[in-house]
Amino acid sequence: MTSVFEITQGTSPIILGFPHTGTEVPPEIAERLNDNGRILADTDWHIHHLYDGLLDNVTTVRATFHRYVIDANRDPAGVSLYPGQNTTGLVPETDFDGKAIWKDGQGPDGADIAARLRDFHAPYHAALAAEIERVRAIHGVAILYDCHSIRSHIPFLFEGKLPDFNIGTDMGKTCDSTIEQATLTVVEAAEGYDGVLNGRFKGGWTTRHYGRPDAGVHAIQMELAQSTHLQTEAPPFAYDGAKADRLRVHLKNILVRIEQIAPGLKR
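== N-formylglutamate deformylase ==
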C-alpha cells in the first residue's frame, strides 16, 4: 500500500494540514462504492495546489486517502462535530447531498471502521502530531492552519450560498485572538469576496483537537467556497488558474501575517 500521507518539512512556525485533498481509494474499498460514490465529489479539489508556494519553508502534512475511506477530520470516536445538524461521519454513508455512496449492503461495518482507523486515520494524525511537536520545539510555538474547501451550494448541509472564506476557531478556543483577527482582517479587506468567522463551519476535529493555545499550539481552519478557485463545482472539478491566482494573493497575505504573529505567542 502506498503511503497514506505526504510530508514536506519546513522551518516556519506554520504547518498546513490537508486532510481532504486525497483521492486514493484502495481497490477492495473502491469496488464497494456505487456509481455516485466513485465520483468522489466531496474531495477538497486542488487545495494543496492552491496553497503551494505561498509561504517559504512551511511544513505540510497531506492525507493521500479519500474521505470516503475514512474522514481524517472527524473524531475517531465517531462523535458528531455539529450535533443536531446534517453532516457526514467518520466513514461517510452518504455524500454531502445526502445520497448513498455505497452499493446496497456493502457499506462499512464496525470491523471496517476499526481497520481504517488503524491503517489511515491514526497514521495521518501521528504524522501531523509529530510535525506539530517538531515545529514547536524549534519556535516555542506552532500554528496549524487546516486547509479545506467545499461547494458553495449544498442544501443538505446549509441554506443559501456559503461565504467565500469560512474561518473556524471553535468560537475562539483553538487559537490566540491575534491569529483570528489577523485572518479576519485580510478576509474583510479582500475585494470581491465575502467571509465569516465561526459560521456554519467552526473548525473540524483536527482544529479542535490540536488547538491548545495555553500549550503553545494554535489551530485555525479555513474552509473556502470552491467557486473561488474551480471552473465549476461539478465534474470534472477543474482548477481555474485565473480565479486561483486572485485568491492566492489573499491566502498568502493571511499566512504571512500569521507567521509574523508567531514570535509574540511564545509562552
